[in-house]
Structure formats: C-alpha cells, structure tokens
Automatic annotation (TrEMBL):
Record's signal peptide: none
Protein's name according to its UniProt entry: PRC-barrel domain protein
SUPFAM superfamilies: PRC-barrel domain
Chain ranges of the PRC-barrel domain: 25-93
Originating species: Kribbella amoyensis
GO process annotations (BP): photosynthesis, light reaction
GO terms for cellular component: plasma membrane light-harvesting complex
Highest taxon of source: Bacteria
Classification via InterPro entries: Bac_photo_RC_H_C, PRC-brl_dom, PRC_barrel-like_sf
Amino acid sequence: MNAVEPVGLVRLDDTDLVLARSEDDVRGVTVTDSGGEEIGKVSSLFVDAEERRVRLVEVASGGLLGLGKEHRLIPVDAIVDVTEEKVVVGRTRDEIAEAPGYDPDLKEAQPPQYYDELYGYYGMSPFWSAGYRSPNYPFR
C-alpha cells in the first residue's frame, strides 16, 4: 500500500466537532466479535474532520480501573452490525487481538504507515483511497 496521510482524521474526544449524524456516536457501547464474544467497549471515535463521519472506532478492553487496558482501532468497514446495546465486528476475538495496537497516550499522531497497516490487516481499502465507498454505518 502507498503510505498516504489520512488527511483530517481526528479523535472526536480531542475536538469540539459534532458528528454529521448523532446516531453514529456509539461511545460506551459494548463491542462483540462475530461469534458474540465481548471484546470491550467503544472508548472513542476517529472521524474525518471534513465530512464529520466516523472512520475508526477505538475499542478498550481488559485492565482494572483503567490500568492495563489494551486499545485497538477498528475501521468502521469491519463492523457488520450496530444496535443500541452492541457493535459487532465481523472478525473473531483472536483476529481483533492480533490487529495493530494503538496507544491513546501518544501525544503525536500515529505515523501514516500505521493506518496503511491497520486497513491492510483488515483487508480493506482506506477511506482516503480513490473510489472508496463508505459503509452505511451505523446500520441502525
């Protein structure tokens, strides 16, 4: 893949942006794998600042009182269903656990190759690539 900076991708919690559609805000919702096993909770959303659309969900899992939690970013394209109670990722728990990790405490942006690796891992074209078509997220 060609390492291209995903222009305008921001963590929603770090901005004063409002999503284009309020129903896209799934922060705090439980995330399950394709078999229904709980993965964690949506802790934040990464949005395309220009379109104010969710492009990645940040999922936090494990840990005690916030310590030792693991974080993963999951492209919305990998999400197969969203209800009031859960977000379902079309991958197994093991596949999600093996995805590139994400450190929310890093002050600088992730390098562009991280996003290429992330989308490549899930076998998807990134949202900034030519001809990309956004899924009908959040499916509700």
